[in-house]
Design goal:
The complex is a heterodimer of chains A (183) and B (189). With 183 residues, chain A is α+β, with helices and mostly antiparallel strands. Chain A contains 5 helices and 7 strands; from the N terminus they run βααβββαβαββα. In chain A, α1 packs across α2. Chain A is globular and about 45 Å long. The chains are: A alpha+beta (183), B alpha+beta (189).
Chain lengths: 183, 189
């Protein structure tokens, strides 16, 4: 398995990614949808030290992968991809965050496609899921276009701009993915 | 406020409970997840977990033993985990089969929910179960939980694929069912 697409490569984070990661995590358009682990704010600006602590946490996590998404042509960090199978490798969870300055170029599609291929071709995954805030229509449309189905809402997942929001759970089954590959 | 219902009380874990907790965990019917197999948990493992709990004024979980009021018997355990203060927690319950059908579980669930909404001021309470565990679904529905998420075929148990179910209850849904209680917590939205 090569963690590479037409335009992108996935590789582990290294210490000198801190600055670029800090820059896009603190981008106002990512406020409220950084989806970071407990203890890391979803909207308050993060210091360099906090981003270093985040990378440490990601690096030490067991049964999880947190990979840097690199635009091959310019060797530029444009986002990060996550996979987690701690509860059960039968039903892993994935997530992709693209820097607001690099969105709408199809990078998310390329990376999700790669993660699904990896998990379905190299692991026992049967159901792969992800989630996004209900107000994040772009992400919901994006997930549907990749073959995910909306399978419920975690009500009152968070509070954003004066409103409660729900988390939308999306999932895709191995046979659904396999059928889509044949088309 | 004692954590007391009509038929049961909730109290903290004690060393003498550990063998019973292991026995429930080792019963393929009382433990809901194949993930927690094999059924070889020991009293010693539970005692170690018990002894390693540290004093804290900021606990993220609470674990209780359910005791019948009439006879003082060990009925099961009930807990909340993943506390996000003033926001949410996830609850879990396990009842010794001897006490299935007694109403003790429902009573214990109400006592814990009252604690979470009235004392801890949570906005939402969640629980996880699966579509093969209809007993748990019915118990939760009786307290006012509803199925919020149905993650398809993601649980394997008893040789079958089941949907992972997330059930939840909002603060105002709880208070609407409990007219005897007033909700004095500020509304966010």
């Amino acid at each position: 398995m090569i963690f590479q697409t037409e335009n992108l490569a996935l590789r582990p984070f290294e210490a000198d990614d801190v600055g670029a990661l800090q820059t896009y995590l603190n981008h106002p358009q990512l406020s409220g949808r950084r989806y970071l682990p407990d203890g890391f704010s979803d909207d308050i600006p993060l210091s360099r030290k906090q981003v270093e602590a985040l990378l440490d946490k990601w690096g030490q996590a067991k049964d999880e992968a947190h990979l840097a998404i690199i635009l091959t042509e310019r060797q530029e960090l444009v986002g990060h991809a996550e996979m987690e199978w701690e509860w059960d490798p039968h039903a892993p969870w994935i997530s992709v965050v693209i820097s607001p300055t690099s969105q709408r170029r199809g990078y998310g599609t390329e990376v999700i496609g790669l993660l699904l291929k990896h998990l379905f071709e190299n692991t026992v995954a049967h159901n792969i899921s992800s989630w996004m805030a209900d107000w994040n229509q772009a992400a919901r449309e994006f997930a549907k276009s990749l073959g995910f189905q909306e399978s419920g809402r975690f009500r009152r997942e968070g509070f954003h701009q004066g409103q409660y929001y729900d988390g939308i759970l999306v999932d895709i089954l191995r046979p659904e993915w396999a059928a889509a590959q044949e088309r | 406020m004692a954590l007391e219902g009509e038929q049961i009380v909730l109290r903290e874990e004690r060393p003498e409970d550990m063998a019973r907790l292991a026995a429930m965990r080792n019963d393929l019917e009382t433990q809901a997840w194949s993930k927690t197999l094999p059924p070889d948990y020991t009293e010693g493992m539970y005692l170690k977990r018990f002894q390693e709990r540290e004093f804290s004024y900021d606990p993220k979980e609470g674990r209780f033993i359910i005791i019948s009021k009439e006879k003082g018997e060990f009925v099961g355990s009930i807990s909340y985990t993943g506390l996000r203060p003033r926001w949410r927690a996830t609850v879990g319950i396990m009842i010794d089969k001897k006490f299935w059908g007694t109403g003790f579980a429902l009573d214990a669930q109400e006592v814990l929910l009252k604690f979470l909404f009235v004392e801890l001021g949570l906005r939402v309470v969640r629980l996880f179960t699966h579509s093969g565990n209809q007993r748990a679904v019915r118990l939760a529905e009786k307290a006012g939980f509803q199925v919020a998420v149905r993650q398809r075929q993601s649980i394997f148990k008893n040789g079958q694929l089941y949907d992972n179910l997330v059930m939840d209850m909002l603060r105002e849904e709880y208070f609407a069912r409990h007219r005897e209680l007033n909700d004095n917590l500020s509304k966010l939205a």
